[in-house]
Design goal:
The protein is an alpha/beta fold. It is 35% helix and 29% strand. It folds into two domains: 2-46 and 128-293, 3-Layer(aba) Sandwich (Rossmann fold); 59-118, Alpha-Beta Plaits (2-Layer Sandwich). The protein has helices at residues 15-25, 42-45, 73-77, 102-106, 144-162, 177-183, 197-212, 228-241, 254-261, 272-286, and strands spanning 2-8, 29-33, 48-63, 83-86, 89-92, 112-127, 130-137, 166-173, 188-193, 217-222, 244-249. A nine-stranded mixed sheet has the order 3-6-7-2-8-1-9-10-11, sandwiched between helices. It has a two-stranded antiparallel ribbon with strand order 4-5. Strand 4 and strand 5 (89-92) form a beta hairpin. The longest helix has 19 residues, at 144-162.
Length: 296
């Protein structure tokens, strides 16, 4: 089983569009959308949800109004000012509570409960391209990295059970916690970038992140022909750093049409863009699995 994560240092590089095409090209695989804060791969894969599961993480304090003696000790000690008096008892503001649990520990009559938060949901779906694991983190909820780790584990278990060859991961942009959870223990990181100053800068950052975790990585330059000079700069960077250049995808207005039709691009056209994506997949597919876990 080979785990391939598609990431980008910044949003808007075309990462999800590229991943959707890989979902169409690869055989015997499971797809995972790890961009749980703003998931959108499902828009191109048209999944049919088979299972829905709650994601719970962290805790919020709750004070039993019937047994609270209104001593005020919890409010006095709460550094987040999340507890206030109300009539003859105290109440917790769930938006201000950080779930540290101090109030529950110091309550003299033990009427404070730490209740686990419902932070979102994750789904197992069927698609025309194979099984798909995805999730939705609730608004203003935390622990996106933990949710990413959860759905990645479910996808890995599914791949092992069904003897699938690939786990294709659509990772989130940036270099934060959910990216770390998406990148860890993968066999290859495919970094999709664009020929702009911000694209180059952020591609370098995510490349350094992959290198830190000893994950083999390669770069795909999307819309390379909108700025050939910057594209050559990226190619020079790849040559200098010993990074594989997996592909150069030209710009096309037809990509927007595929988004409107809600299907992977390689299924809508046989042009240079589709050919470049197929060539990139051939290079990705040819890389051996297991390199990510070899010591340097």
């Amino acid at each position: 089983m080979k785990q391939i994560v598609v990431i980008s240092g910044k949003g808007g590089t075309g990462k999800t569009i590229f991943t959707a095409s890989l979902a169409s090209l690869a055989e015997n695989k499971v797809m995972v959308d790890c961009d749980v804060d703003a998931a959108n791969l499902h828009l191109l894969l048209s999944p049919r949800v088979v299972e829905t599961h709650e994601f719970r993480s962290g805790a919020t304090a709750w004070i039993n109004p019937d047994t609270c003696i209104a001593c005020g000790e919890c409010a006095e000690m709460c550094r987040f000012e999340a507890i206030r008096g109300a009539d003859d008892h105290y109440v917790v503001d769930p938006l201000a509570c950080e779930g540290c649990g101090l109030c529950a520990r110091i309550c003299p009559v033990e009427v404070v409960e730490m209740r686990e938060n419902l932070c979102g949901q994750w789904y197992l779906s069927d698609t025309a391209y194979g099984p798909f694991v995805h999730a939705k983190l609730g608004i203003a909820r935390e622990n996106s990295g933990k949710l990413v780790a959860c759905i990645r584990q479910k996808a890995k278990e599914l791949a092992e059970t069904r003897r699938l060859d690939y786990v294709i991961i659509d990772g989130p942009p940036g270099i934060g916690c959910p990216v770390l959870a998406s990148l860890t223990d993968t066999d290859l990181a495919v970094i999709v970038t664009e020929p702009t100053l911000s694209g180059i800068h952020d591609a370098r950052r995510v490349m350094e992140l992959a290198r830190h975790f000893r994950i083999p990585a390669g770069i795909v330059i999307n819309k390379w022909d909108i700025n050939p000079e910057r594209s050559r700069e990226i190619e020079a960077f790849c040559a200098l750093e010993g990074v594989s250049l997996l592909g150069r995808i030209p710009f096309s207005k037809r990509v927007a049409e595929s988004l409107i039709r809600a299907v992977p691009y390689v299924e809508t056209a046989g042009d240079d863009v589709a050919a470049a994506i197929r060539a990139a997949w051939d290079k990705i597919d040819s890389k051996p699995a297991g390199e990510a876990r070899r010591p340097s």
